[in-house]
Write a structure and sequence with these properties.
Length: 293
Amino acid sequence: MRFVKWLLFLAFSILLLVFAAGASYYFSPPLLSSILQAPTLIIDYSPFSINHSATHTPTPFQPQTYTPTATLTPTPTHTPSPAPTQTPTLTLTPTPTLTPSLTPTSPFPASAYIGNFNGFPQTYNLSCESRSASDLAAYFGVEFSELAFLWALPTSDNPNKGFVGSVTDALGGLPPNGYGVHAGPVADLMRAWGLSATAHFGLSYEHLQTEIAAGRPVMIWAIRELGYSDPVSYTSSDGETSIVARYEHTFIVIGYGPDYITVEDNGRIYSVSLNQFLTSWGILGNMAVTIDG
């Protein structure tokens, strides 16, 4: 307890010393002089106003007004629009209408045969053309004999103009010796005797098939037995050049198949291969006589 009293006494003493020091300073002559010369402060109790004897009038407190700083809105940068890419225009090509492909039909059947044709043997070695003409005419309803036709043919050293040589000469001769006659004079005489006959040089195999398929036998020139003989170029006294061959002979074609030909020859009917026929027929240039029935 005593200790507390001493502490209080000590604090009070210190306080007195501090007060005395402050008073001596405040009431010192220089300070008092400055205080006495200071202007008289008149307090105006109006709100926020303080008047001094001096001419300065304080400005009432003005709360600071914050002017908002304009926010710069960035101007959008112009982004160039890419030039439009031209879209290619598609030109529609009309799709062609597919026309069904038709398998070409043959104008004639694969095979044909004329079964009612009658032929007879020839009378002389070189009278085959007259025998064939007589048999062909009979098929179309015109009757004349082999010999009547033979004697009516013109004669010449040119087989394209008339009969060459003697009908009784040996087989296998060449003009101007015993030979025979070509298609031209034969067709001419047949027409004179009432038949619509046509001589052909270079007749196609397809034409031949067409005639047979239509039921019209065809007279053709080839080599005996549808064999082979070398073609020979021959110039007659009138200056015309033609192709002739040894063992020239006539046949009546009455049938065909995919790979064969059927003929009437001197009263016989037989077939040979198509290749053999075409080779033999071609030697004298696919010569023939057709009848328009």
